[in-house]
# Entry
Amino acid sequence: MAVAQESVPVKSIELEWDPVEKASGYEVRLMPAKGGKPLKFFTEDAKLMQDVPVGLYKLQIRSRSEDADIFSPWSDTMPLEVVAKEITPLKPEDGAVMESPDANKFPVDFEWKSVDGVKEYTIKVWSEKRRETPWVFVTKQPKKRLDVPPGEIYFWQVLFESASGISYAQAPTTFRFTVMGAKLTTPPIGPQTLNPDMQILEWEASPGAKAYKVKLYFRYLDETEFKLVDETTTENTQWTFNRLNRGAYKLEVVATAPRRSASDPGSFEFTVKPSDQEIQRALAGVKR
# Structure
C-alpha cells in the first residue's frame, strides 16, 4: 500500500545584491542545510524572486560575463532561512480609511503581531507619490509611529531578521490604508448668488476643493415644500441657466476633492419675481 507523502510548503523569496560590472546575468545556488540536491536559478538582473520549499539553506551567487559564457567564482556562503512566518497587521487594518483633522500631517500607529525568534523588524512605508523614496525604519518592537501627509493612499510592509543571524528571505505581504484629508469648508453662498440678468448662480470657492456638487430646488410661492428640479457637478463656481421660472428656489452646494471629506452643504434661498411688464400684463388680463 502506497503511503501518501506530505507536500512541502513553499514560500516566495526575494533576494537582491549589488550588480557586477559587465555581467550578463547571475546564477543563484541554494544548498539545503540538512543536505540534498541544490536548487539553482539564473537571472539577468541582480535580484531574484522565486518560490522555494520552506527550510534552511546556504546561499551562493556568481556572475556570468557579458563577453563570454564564463562564470565568476561562487561567492562566500551565506545562511538563508525560508520559513512560513507571516506578519499579521493590527493597526492600521489592511484597507483602513482614516480622516485627518490636520491639513499637513497625520500620526499613524503601525502595529503587528510579534513573530517568534525575530531579532529586529524593518518596516517600509510608501505612498503613490513616494514609490521611489519610501520611509524605512528598523525596530526591535512590533510597532512604529509615523507622521504622514493626509490625502493619500499608503502601502506598508514588514520584513524581519532571525535572532540566529540567519537572513530571512520571505517576500513580505503588502498592506494598504488611506488617510483622508481634512474636511473641506462649506462654500460661502449669499445674496450675490443670483445674477437675474445673466441667469447665473454662483458661489465662493472652498479652499482645496476640486469640484462642486450642486442641487437646485424649487417651489411655487403658494407652496411650502421644495422639490429637486436640477443637479450637476462642476469644477467652476457658477452654474448658468437659460431661464429660471418665477417662484422660490433653494441652491445647495457641496465642495469635494479626491481623498478629502466633502464639505457640509452650503445653501441659499431666493425668489425669482415677475417683472413689472409681466405684472402689468397680468393686471390687464384681470381687468378684461
In short: The domain at 89-180 is CATH 2.60.40.10 (Immunoglobulin-like). The longest helix spans residues 276-287. The radius of gyration is 33 Å.
